[in-house]
Write a structure and sequence with these properties.
The C terminus is likely disordered. Helices cover 37% and strands 20% of the residues. With 161 residues, the protein is of the alpha/beta class. The chain has one domain: Rossmann fold (3-Layer(aba) Sandwich).
């Protein structure tokens, strides 16, 4: 079983990619869903409940596992993943998707959109430096899902490569 972290800024399609991966029979966890994160005043945002994520990553049985996240403490558990994949796209692509999406209200206010653009400028470069692979999230969703699925099937992909 492979363990793949899918990360990226809001609007890159992490949740949509997980839906596609689940349809292919992979296990998926979107840590935006309740119970996986908690608010941290010290970190100024949501962080993983590390003990819960660590428990999730212990098993090696079953289909490959994909975890989607964009939280400040995720790097603490990178060593437990076989791959860390950054989904990235240009600001205009992200803002258009966020404007048009109906499954997530985040990013609809001017203040939230400003924060998204600031994160794109400040946080995404940090993610880029620590990921094992980057995927262009502006391409069709089916191609993104295919590329992610290959990582779940490829035993040679690892944190070393």
């Amino acid at each position: 079983m492979r363990k793949v972290l899918v990360t990226g800024m809001s609007g890159t399609g992490k949740s949509s990619a997980l839906v596609g991966l689940a349809r292919l029979g992979f296990r998926v966890i979107d840590t935006d869903e309740a119970g996986w994160t908690e608010w941290s005043d010290d970190d100024g945002g949501y962080v993983w409940r590390e003990e819960r994520i660590a428990e999730l990553l212990v098993g090696d049985d079953g289909p490959s596992l994909y975890v989607a996240a964009a939280v400040s403490n995720q790097g603490r558990l990178y060593s437990r993943f076989d791959a860390v994949v950054l989904l990235s796209a240009a600001p205009e692509v992200l803002l258009s998707r966020i404007e048009n999406r109906t499954n997530n209200p985040y990013g609809k206010t001017p203040a939230q959109r400003e924060l998204i653009l600031r994160d794109l400028a400040e946080v995404e470069p940090l993610l880029r430096r620590t990921c094992t692979r980057e995927i262009d999230a502006a391409q069709p969703l089916a191609r993104i899902v295919d590329q992610l699925a290959e990582l779940g099937r490829d035993c040679s992909a690892s944190m070393d490569g």
